[in-house]
Structure formats: C-alpha cells, structure tokens
Specification:
Elements (H helix, E strand, L loop, with lengths): L14 H8 L3 H8 L18 H14 L7 H10 L6 H10 L7 H5 L14
Helix pairs in contact: 4-5
Length: about 120
C-alpha cells in the first residue's frame, strides 16, 4: 500500500502515512509482510546424552523398581545418577510432568487446603 502513488502529486504514499490512516503500527505491517515460520522453534541448548524417549523409559524402570507408591523427582534423579544416567534435575521434572509420572501431592490426598469459617477473637 505504501508503494501506491498519489493521484494528485504522483509520489508514493509513505509507510508512516498509511499506518496513520489505518491506525496501526509499522511493526504490525512488517510482521504481516513476512511469511509465518514453518516449524516452531526448538528447545534451546544441547539435547543431552540420551534422547527424551530413552530417558522416559529409564525413569519408568526406576519407578517400577521402587517399593514405594510414588517417588519424588529429586530422589528419582539421584537414583538415575547412581545407575549411570547423567541428566539434569529440570529435565527429569519436565519429562515426569509431561508423562504424568509425578508423585501424588499431600494436599490432594487430604482434600485441599484448610478454610477459615469465622475470624478468631483476640485474646487479651
């Protein structure tokens, strides 16, 4: 639109004038000019010594070998480390969260948080 010439003066309309008439920012025009990205950006950083699928299988194996109902992410990370699988705590947490392997939380077992029915009277 900014390359269209004015019929009165024969000069092209500027992008600033077009944006003022359309009541939009120049950044919006430039964003819509470029094609959308074909694939979403990948996670930053190195992928680690083993792929996510293999690490999930190792997590499941450690959980299956545990005598307890649910293991926490920190203890599970330590057991993986003892077994020779070196990875980060955050990656273990992310994979456990994505695959529903986190231990049940105490507040969920008790039925939620305590609620106050009436304010307490001051003692004095």
């Amino acid at each position: 639109m900014s390359r269209t010439t004015s019929p009165g003066s024969g000069t092209p309309y500027g992008l600033a004038r077009v944006c003022r008439v359309w009541r939009t920012s120049r950044a919006t025009i430039y964003r819509h000019r470029s094609p959308p990205p074909t694939n979403p950006p990948a996670r930053r950083g190195p992928s680690g010594p083993m792929p996510d699928a293999a690490l999930v299988e190792a997590i499941r194996a450690v959980l299956a070998g545990s005598p307890f109902h649910g293991e926490g992410r920190r203890k599970l990370w330590a057991r993986l480390r003892i077994a020779g699988v070196r990875t980060s705590k955050r990656r273990v947490l992310r994979l456990m969260r994505e695959h529903g392997l986190l231990a049940p939380r105490a507040s969920a077992r008790r039925g939620g948080h305590a609620t106050m029915t009436a304010p307490s009277s001051p003692t004095g």
